[in-house]
Write a structure and sequence with these properties.
The chain is α/β, with parallel strands linked by helices and 138 residues long. The protein has one domain: CBS-domain (Roll). It is built from six helices and six strands. The strands form two sheets. Strands 1-2-3 form a three-stranded mixed beta sheet. Strands 4-5-6 form a three-stranded mixed beta sheet. The longest helix has 15 residues. 23% of the residues are buried.
């Protein structure tokens, strides 16, 4: 991971779990539980990045609303998503997570003025690569 040439594209399988802003929080929670993931990328009707909703956002909704299941993703998602491109070095992703005190970034591909999500890189992914790098050096 310390090698400046190791990029997001080289390190991550592409693919992303998504939902829409008008999805119910119950549907989002079920998808996270079924897929054993901690966040969903929120997409607009054109397939572009609209936000992100995390387990923590679901907990916030649960604590604030007795009937949280009827709330929508758009009411609790974060529209200010930290993104990186496919050629971003993993070292830069690591620094972003630390500097912004976040757990994941969304990997996007720019298509004209739109951002198309293609993957998510999490702190867990980076720890995996740290261990792999250590084993390769041994």
């Amino acid at each position: 991971m310390r090698e400046p040439g190791t990029t997001v594209m080289q390190a991550k399988r592409l693919g992303v779990f998504t939902c829409k802003a008008d999805s119910s929080l119950l549907d989002a929670a079920r998808k996270m539980a079924d897929e054993d993931i901690s966040a969903l990328v929120v997409m607009d009707d054109e397939g572009s990045l609209a936000g992100i909703i995390t387990r923590t956002d679901l907990l916030r909704a649960y604590a604030a609303h007795a009937d949280w299941t009827k709330c929508h993703v758009g009411d609790f998602m974060n529209p200010n998503v930290i993104t990186v491109g496919l050629s971003t070095p993993l070292s830069q992703v690591t620094q972003l997570l630390l500097d912004k005190q976040i757990h994941r970034v969304v990997v996007v591909r720019q298509e004209e003025a739109r951002l198309r999500p293609v993957a998510v890189i999490s702190a867990a992914d980076l720890v995996y690569h740290m261990v792999r790098e250590y084993r390769e050096l041994k």
